[in-house]
Amino acid sequence: MGIDEADIDPERFLDDVEMRIGTIRSADPFPEARKDVYKLAVDFGSETRQSVAGLTDNYDPEELEGRQVLAVVNLGTVNIAGFESQCLVTGVDDAEGDVVHLQPEREVPDGTRLY
């Protein structure tokens, strides 16, 4: 694995992509989706948005509730099996290929913006 993408202007990235910390308030199975995912309600302080996230291999719903996550909040909405996903919760693959969500190392106020 290498880092292959061309450099971008960091100020432009932060102007275009809005990423904020939110707390997962609920995580529910989503059997209607083609992939094994959860429906999430993520609290960003001033509002709560819903999302679909493929965290099912590493997390039970009860483990996710109350955890903070880093999410992209300005991608618009995507309709997945009749459910409107309003933000993208970020994650990375672990050594086994399971998704691990990204979170701050300690609690910060919901709605805090990445900079």
TrEMBL record:
The residue range of the signal peptide is: none
Where's the TRNA-binding domain?
13-115
Q: What Gene3D superfamilies has UniProt attached to this entry?
A: Nucleic acid-binding proteins
Concerning InterPro entries, the annotation shows:
NA-bd_OB-fold, tRNA-bd_dom, Tyrosine-tRNA_ligase_regulator
Q: Which UniProt keywords apply?
A: RNA-binding, tRNA-binding
Q: Which domain of life is it from?
A: Archaea
- Say if the entry is tagged with keyword Signal: no
- Pfam hit, one: tRNA_bind
Molecular function GO labels: tRNA binding
According to UniProt, the name of this protein is tRNA-binding protein
UniProt source species: Halorientalis pallida
